[in-house]
UniProtKB/TrEMBL annotation:
Chief location of this protein within or outside the cell: membrane
Membrane topology: Multi-pass membrane protein
Compositionally biased intervals (Basic and acidic residues): 548-563
Lineage: Eukaryota, Metazoa, Chordata, Craniata, Vertebrata
Domain Major facilitator superfamily (MFS) profile: 111-536
UniProt xrefs under InterPro entries: MFS_dom, MFS_sugar_transport-like, MFS_trans_sf
Keyword tRNA processing: no
Name assigned to this protein: Solute carrier family 22 member 16
Sequence intervals crossing the membrane: 20-42, 182-205, 211-229, 241-260, 266-284, 362-383, 395-412, 424-442, 448-471, 483-506, 512-531
Positions of region (Disordered): 544-569
Compartment list: Membrane
Keywords assigned by UniProt, alphabetized: Membrane, Transmembrane, Transmembrane helix
GO terms for cellular component: membrane
GO molecular function, one term: transmembrane transporter activity
Name of the gene this protein is made from: slc22a16
């Protein structure tokens, strides 16, 4: 099919495509929201184990008060316990996960040499939380601290597992029932599941509904990339596909703003889930893509769509007929039966993931591309989720982590078309690795410099993460392109699942997440330099053409060993 003729006739990004593009991308904001919402859902304020009885006096260093709530904002577990006296005269030393009773104390002082008995706080005991910063989170509602802390830490990885499942399920459904239906169903379910999360009465129901929310959010994000690509011409496709990520970044910024204004988790969740709800009023008017309609042989519906595009773009309806988009029979016959070949064409053979490793050259390329997908996702979420731990104002940090993506996509698009895909991706990864290493050596008390370096790393990793979609398409031939992008996307999901655990490693050493991301970004950045450049190259159709990418053109190229040359393509 010559469906690309549509854009030659009606424009690559005229009024019809622009309205449809911005409407579809608007809902992608919700994906960014739900992917990062857990940052403040599982926020853990200062807390101590509650003592038995009513408290009359509290001591903590130089701070005194009549209640724990007065002193908790100043509490730091590393600086020692809080000392309290109850109405019956008992004295307790309170820590985060245990409490110690003083036996026969002589007076009420912070430090006292007396016998003590220590008991561990368990699920039957209550904790006292500092509500000055976080009024209510799922941690404070369900006591997800101490022995139950791991349940809070499972919130983001479980969501990312749902993202993985959703990408697999809805990507396949979209090929079967159409892009339009999937966009409608997933956007409606995003609203329903998003609001439902706020009303879950216990942790396990909360996790189940969040998993379903992750599936539909991922499904929308995967299909909207295909949808906008099939409605825009190749002259603007790089920009339109890249800037779907910008809508995702806007969602991250929305999380920061809402988290700052609303400190009660279920209200915060409802607001985030309803901010893109206007999309539900017009998504049912979305048309199916011409590529899908033609692939299914629905010529009458295609003609109606073509006439609608023409009218909306100020052109004469009927100037392009659906039948004109079909390839001539001669071309089809030429593709089906190649002259002088008795074997079936390569595209007729059933392909599998093993074909990505068919030769040494393609195997090396696949490993490198998968590595870029992995580090792109890992770095993106480590910088985003870890931004709240940088020091300073956590809400501003997360807002900046989203805002910095806008210039990264603009510069990334410009560089891709000027200096090339490889020469944009590799330096971006090396810059991200450099930023991570500099964060480690910068003195901890210079918070502003740490934040600047972290945003530099996020800026760089966003460039690599944004361009790898298109770069992967150009590195593989038509017969295996979808499989290459799909397998790369799988590695991306693996990176997003690993990212929260990587962030939690900061409990062992503050800079361990940056060290891991920095080392991997350096190594993968160097490996990316060995990939072939695809700027200005036509899309390949066969494995032989794909393998030849990056080789020097010479008369006896076919006689050379595929492993020769300066590049390991």
């Amino acid at each position: 099919m010559s469906v690309e003729r549509i854009f030659d006739e009606f424009g690559h990004f005229k009024r019809f495509q622009a309205c449809l593009y911005f409407a579809a991308v608007f809902q992608a904001i919700a994906c960014g929201i739900h992917y990062l919402a857990s940052v403040f859902l599982v926020e853990r304020p200062n807390f101590v184990c509650a003592p038995p009885g009513n408290i009359t006096d509290v001591l903590y260093g130089n701070h005194t008060g009549a209640s724990l709530e007065e002193v908790l904002p100043f509490f730091k577990p590393a600086n020692g316990p809080m000392v309290v006296r109850t109405a019956v005269g008992q004295q307790w030393e309170l820590s985060t996960c245990q409490r110690t009773q003083r036996i026969n104390p002589t007076d009420f002082t912070y430090e006292q040499v007396v016998n003590r008995t220590t008991e561990k706080c368990d699920e039957n005991d209550r904790y006292v939380y500092d509500h000055s910063e976080v009024y209510q989170s799922i941690v404070t509602d369900w006591d997800l601290v101490c022995d139950r802390e791991w349940l809070a830490k499972l919130c983001q990885p479980t969501f990312m597992m749902g993202v993985l499942v959703g990408a697999l399920v809805f990507g396949d459904i979209a090929d079967r029932v159409g892009r339009r239906r999937v966009l409608m169903i997933t956007s409606l379910c995003q609203f329903v599941f998003g609001v439902s999360v706020a009303f879950m009465g216990n942790y396990y129901l909360f996790m189940v509904v969040r998993f379903l929310l992750a599936m539909v959010s991922s499904g929308y994000l995967v299909v909207v990339f295909v949808y906008v690509t099939e409605f825009t011409g190749n002259k603007v496709r790089t920009w339109t596909s890249m800037h779907v990520h910008a809508a995702f970044a806007a969602g991250v910024m929305m999380v920061a703003i809402t988290g700052y204004l609303v400190r009660t988790w279920w209200i915060y969740q409802i607001i985030l889930s309803t901010c893109t709800s206007p999309f539900l009023f017009f998504c049912w008017k979305f048309p199916e893509t011409p590529f899908y309609l033609m692939a299914k042989g629905r010529l009458q519906e295609t003609q109606v769509l073509l006439d609608s595009i023409a009218r909306f773009n100020g052109l004469e309806p009927g100037r392009l007929r659906a039948e004109d988009l079909l390839e001539p029979k001669e071309a089809l016959l030429e593709k089906e039966v190649a002259p002088g070949r008795a074997q079936p064409a390569e595209s007729e053979r059933k392909l599998s993931i093993l074909d990505l490793f068919g030769t040494w050259r393609m195997a090396w390329r696949t490993v490198t591309v998968w590595a870029v997908w992995f580090i792109g996702s890992l770095g993106y979420y480590v910088f985003s989720l870890g931004s709240v731990n940088l020091g300073g104002n956590q809400y501003i940090n997360l807002f900046l982590a989203g805002a910095v993506e806008f210039p990264s996509y603009l510069i990334g698009c410009y560089a891709m078309d000027r200096v090339g895909r490889k020469r944009t991706c590799a330096p971006a990864l090396l810059l991200a690795g450099t930023a991570c290493m500099l964060i480690i050596v910068v003195p901890k008390d210079i918070e502003v410099l740490v934040i600047i370096l972290s945003m530099t790393g996020k800026f760089a990793i966003a460039i690599a993460f944004g361009l790898i979609y298109l770069y992967t398409c150009e590195l593989y031939p038509t017969i295996i392109r979808s499989l290459a992008v799909g397998s790369g996307s799988m590695m991306c999901r693996v990176g997003s699942i690993v990212a929260p655990f990587c962030v939690y490693l900061a409990d062992i050493w503050q800079y361990l997440p940056q060290l891991i991301v920095g080392i991997l970004a350096f190594i993968i950045g160097v490996l990316t330099l060995l990939l072939p450049e695809t700027l200005g190259e036509p899309l390949t159709s066969t494995m032989e053409e794909a393998e030849a990418l990056g080789r020097k053109n010479s008369p006896d190229q076919g006689k050379k060993d595929p492993e020769e040359g300066m590049e390991m393509n």
